[in-house]
Amino acid sequence: MDVYPIPMVPGPVKVPEEILRVYQTNYGAPGLEASFWDLYHETESRLQQILETRNRVVIQTGEGMLALWTALRSCLKPGDRVLSVATGVFGYGIADMARSIGAEVMTVGLEYHETLNDLRPVEKAVEEFNPRMITAVHCETPSGTLNPLDGLGKLKEAMGVPLLYADVVSSAGGTPVRVDACHVDLALGGSQKCLSAPPCMAFLSISDRAWEEIERVDYNGYDALKPFRRIEETRRFPYTPYWHGVAALNAGAALLLAPGLDESFNRHESIARHCRKAIVDMGLDLFPSPQAVPSPTVTAVRVPETLPWEELDRRLRQKGLVVGGSHGKLAGKVFRLGHMGSQADTALLEKALTVLADVVGGTGRQR
Ligand code: PLP
After folding, report:
1. For residue 108, is it within any domain?
2. Residue pair 295/326 in contact by the 8 Å Cβ criterion
3. Is the separation of the CB atoms in 276 and 294 below 8 Å?
4. Distance 136 CA to ligand 1 centre (A)
5. Of the residues 194, 226, 257, which one is the last residue of a structural domain?
6. What is this model's ipTM?
7. CB of 63 closer than 6 A to ligand 1?
């Protein structure tokens, strides 16, 4: 049963019935261990297709944050240099996490409503700082923006930076990530966004270069990536395998791939375009600046000055619509419609827009 009939939170998204059924399957019977590996490999291969990579994809039990953290923790030693491209909550957060490991961090920072359209500051920073890793966030979910990965990949290759790290938590499956074409060494995703699965299955695509770094750092903590390197041979998961989660992630990946990935990308793009136009038509302001690249998976909107976020949220929920607030310095100022995965659906969006127009009707454009 749905708690809210019109779910538009930018993750965790509504889990479709067919995925819930897979999730509820009982895997407790003895003798099933062997087939876990079939499931794991099938899921890995589907994630490789979604990320457009031949790199190994590791599936870890945990949130997207775990993937972000563990990739830093397993690839960096104290004193290693990291250049963090930050355009929002997660970009700045990744820089902080790298610092907490003892990395020396330089940030190319932009405002939250901007995207990285000009690579020259990054190029200059790489020249000056000679980093071991560049970090970036593909879709900054709290801002509804999309940063280009291809330019960063080309720059990394041309300037000889060893590693490109990309948070693809809210983009993978909803928009092309093209890990290999963009030379992304560490692409970090989560199950609960465009894959439409329950939360807490993280996935990490890891290039050969990144595996070399993992060996160099030789980190062996609970969250280490190293044990996953030879998992095919050892067939030993570092902890209890999360069958239900992997099965649901596999089903989510299959659902995306069935009509072809392009279908998913086009659907997300056209729904997002429609959503942005409707928002502007009802007199609300989009959050990303006109120069920024908006994300096809989430639309961020400024909270009208005459209707505080808590009241807006309350009135929307009363009518069955639940949207996302935002985080950090955007809290209370921005709300978001998540049209990703199962929620990239025209009929659902129409319902959401009808409720939204009804609730904000008459509040008018603020500026
Ligand atoms: N990165 C981005 C861009 C996100 O939007 C999120 C979650 O919303 C995360 C990372 C963290 O994922 P999780 O909430 O699964 O830890």
Report:
1. yes
2. no
3. yes
4. 13
5. 257
6. 0.99
7. yes
Binding residue ranges for substrate: 336
Instruction: Report how far ligand 1's centroid is from the alpha carbon of 237 (Å).
Output: 24
pLDDT by 10s per residue, the chain, length 367? 777 899 999 999 999 999 999 999 887 665 566 688 889 999 999 999 999 999 999 999 999 999 999 999 999 999 999 999 999 999 999 999 999 999 999 999 999 999 999 999 999 999 999 999 999 999 999 999 999 999 999 999 999 999 999 999 999 999 999 999 999 999 999 999 999 999 999 999 999 999 999 999 999 999 999 999 988 788 888 888 899 999 999 999 999 999 999 999 999 999 999 999 999 999 999 999 999 999 999 999 999 999 999 999 999 999 999 999 988 899 999 999 999 999 999 999 999 999 999 999 866 554 4
- Point out the ligand 1 atom lying closest to the alpha carbon of residue 139: 3
Euclidean distance between CA atoms 232 and 235, whole angstroms:
5
Pocket test for ligand 1, best of 96, 170, 297, 327 (most atoms within 8 A of CB): 170
Task: Specify whether the CB–CB gap between 168 and 340 falls below 8 A.
Answer: no
Number of domains in the chain: 2
Is there an atom of ligand 1 within 6 Å of 155 CB? no
Residue 166 Cα to ligand 1 middle (Å): 12
Calpha distance 218→204 (Å, rounded): 18
Residue to probe by mutation, ligand 1, list 60, 61, 65, 139, most atoms within 8 Å of CB: 65
Q: Structure tokens of 240? A: 């209890």
Are 289 and 234 in the same domain? no
Residues 286, 231 share a domain: no
- Distance between CA atoms of 122 and 24, rounded to whole angstroms? 46
What's the 196 CA to ligand 1 centre distance in angstroms? 14
> Distance (Å, rounded) from C-alpha 302 to C-alpha 335?
6
Question: Which amino acid residue places its CA nearest to atom 9 of ligand 1?
Answer: 64
Q: Is 323 left (phi over 0), alpha (psi -120 to 50) or beta?
A: beta
Sequence-distant (6+) residues with CB within 8 A of 3 are 322
The Å distance, Cα 12 to ligand 1 centre, comes to 10
Structural domain of 294: 6-13+261-360
